[in-house]
Amino acid sequence: MQILDAVRAGGGIVRAQTLRERGCSSRALTQLVRSGMLVRPRGGWLAVPDADPHLIAAARDGVVLSCVTQARRLGLWVLEHDRTHVAAASHAGGVRIARSGDGRALATVHWMKPAVPRHPHHLIDPIENVLLLVAACQPLESALTIWESALRKQIVDPLALRRLPLPARARHLLELARPSADSGLETLFIVRLRWLRVPITAQLWIAGHHVDVLIGDRLVFQIDGGTHVDEQRSQDIAHDAQLLLMGYSVFRVGYRDVIDHWPRVQEMVSRAVAQGLHLAR
Predict the structure, then answer these.
(1) Who contacts 53 (Cβ-Cβ below 8 Å, separation ≥6)?
(2) Element (H or E) spanning 110, and its range?
(3) Could you list the residue range(s) of the whole structural domain that residue 16 is in?
(4) pTM given for the model
(5) pLDDT tens profile 98-142
(6) Could you say which of 3, 63, 126, 229 is the most buried, measured as most Cβ atoms within 10 Å of its Cβ?
C-alpha cells in the first residue's frame, strides 16, 4: 500500500501533515489507524506498529533523540548508560515524559536552545546539537570518546563546528579531540595518561601493522577488543615478536582492563616509563 510505503520510507514514523501534503486523505489515514496498520503515538504523528520504539517514544513525548542516546544510535563509542537522553527547546510546551511507578522520569530531558535549528518534523537531533549536549552532560573523558568517535567516522566537520557559538566546555573538547584514535578505549587510555607529560601517539604504522598506542619512542601498548581471537590473535603474536626484535617493549591490555581495572594499567605504564622503556636505546 502506497501510504504504508511512504511511512516506512520516512523511517517508520512521519507527520500526518507530510502524508496529507503528498495527497493522502485524512479519511484514508484514519481507516489505516482503525485497522491497526498505523498507530498514533501522539496527535499529528503516524507510525507503523513495528517502528523504532525510540522514535515512537520521542514522538509521544514531544522531544527529539539526542545526547548519548543518539550518539549510540549513530554507532559512536559510548560508555554504558541506563537512561534515554532526549532534548527539547527551552521554550517547548507539551513535553510529557513517561514515568515509572514511583514517579521517576524514564528519560533525561535536556532543555536547550539548539545550535542547529531542529526541523519540527524530525525526531532526531542534528549531530552538532548531539555533541554539544554530550559536552554539557558527560564527564570529560566520556564526552571526549564520543567527540573523537564522531570525528573518526567523519559524520561531523571540525571546521564547521568551530564556526558555531560553542560553550567553553565544547570548545575545549574540540581542541582536545583527535580523530587518530581507533576506538574509545584508545581515547580513554591516552587522555588518562596525559599527566605523564611524555609523547603519546595513537595508530602508528610500524613493521607492517598498526600499533594502538606508542608512548615515547619505544613503548607500545596494544588494546585488544573482542576481535582479537583466532587468526587475528596469531597475527598479533607474530607482530609483537617482530616489534620486540626491533627494540620495542610491547604490552597488551583488554577492554575490562581499561574500563574496570584502570589503576592497575596506569601503574604498569608508570613503572614502564620509570624504567625508561619508552626511550630509544
Answers:
(1) none
(2) strand 107-111
(3) 2-51
(4) 0.83
(5) 666 666 667 889 988 899 999 988 999 999 999 999 999 999 999
(6) 63
